[in-house]
Design a protein that fits this description.
This protein has helices at 2-16, 45-53, 69-79, 118-127, 156-168, 170-175, and strands at residues 30-34, 58-62, 82-86, 105-109, 132-136, 177-178, 183-184, 192-198, 202-209, 215-220, 230-232, 238-239, 249-254, 259-265. With 269 residues, the chain is of the alpha/beta class.
């Protein structure tokens, strides 16, 4: 817990030292759960309370169910949830590359998601500009957070973890924008993506592995990027890279379906 608090403190320091002309407009990120009512089209307070009890703060409601939108918002406010109205997601798997709409929203359809790389998929979506991520169990009614045996569905724990990671540093996520390109040293492992993002006073490095196997890779970063000391957004550990005249070199291993997210200040003291 102490490590996590230290990490959050470091992230706050890295993102707070920004002058007015450096700042970009932050867009608050949201991690949500698709909810269609019980029965479909009819919100139920118990369902909403079960979603909120997980630590989630938002639900996504079908935009074509306008008749019940006022009521679902009323009930959601009682339990402390916000409501996002969106069109029904297209049939897709979380294993597919996330498709981000013009409203920077992405739907992760997680039906039968045991073994699906949710962490990698969600963080890849964030790296590509997603600011609203809605997990969809594809159930026609109910909260969808439990399986047929009544146990927590496989996708719930990763969704809650991602929500906490995002909400703890919401302003930082809101400022992320594409940074300079990085180079994965050949041969490039299948399923691996590494993206460098600009967050005004900081650089953020996101590596995601959509493959079914662990991979090891080497990445060359631009010369302007510092080689140390990077801090993990996910667990607070530190990372040092190899310093080279052409720019830092990062050699790492990443588990199947996993994400690695590191941050460093642009100005090193």
């Amino acid at each position: 817990m102490l490590v996590r608090l230290v990490a959050l403190g470091l992230l706050w320091v890295l993102t707070s030292a920004v002058t007015a002309d450096q700042q970009t407009e932050a867009v608050a990120p949201v991690v949500s759960v698709w909810y269609r009512g019980t029965p479909a089209g009819t919100p139920r307070l118990d369902d909403l309370a079960a979603i909120r009890a997980l630590g989630l703060t938002s639900i996504t409601w079908p935009a074509d169910s306008d008749a019940a939108l006022t009521e679902v918002r009323r009930q959601a406010e009682i339990v402390g949830l916000t409501v996002i109205a969106r069109p029904e997601p297209k049939a897709a798997s979380a294993q597919a590359a996330p498709v981000i709409g013009p409203d920077t929203a992405v739907d992760l359809v997680v039906a039968g998601s045991r073994g699906v790389p949710l962490m990698a998929t969600a963080w890849r979506a964030i790296a590509h500009g997603a600011r609203v991520i809605s997990f969809d169990s594809a159930q026609p009614d109910g909260a969808g957070v439990n399986d047929v045996s009544g146990r927590s569905a496989p996708w719930v724990q990763p969704a809650v973890a991602i929500a906490r990671q995002i909400h703890a540093n919401a302003e930082l996520v809101g400022r992320l924008r594409p940074g300079p390109a990085v180079t994965i040293v050949p041969p490039e492992p299948a399923g691996l993506e590494v993206v460098l993002l600009d967050a005004d006073a900081s650089w953020v490095l996101v590596a995601t592995n959509m493959a079914n196997a662990n991979v090891r890779a080497t990445v060359d970063l631009p010369k302007a990027v510092p080689y140390a000391l990077w801090v993990s957004w996910l667990d607070g550990t530190n990372l040092g890279m190899l310093s080279r005249p052409s720019g830092p070199r990062w050699t790492f291993s990443i588990d199947a379906g996993a994400a690695l997210v590191y941050i460093i200040g642009k100005v090193q003291r």
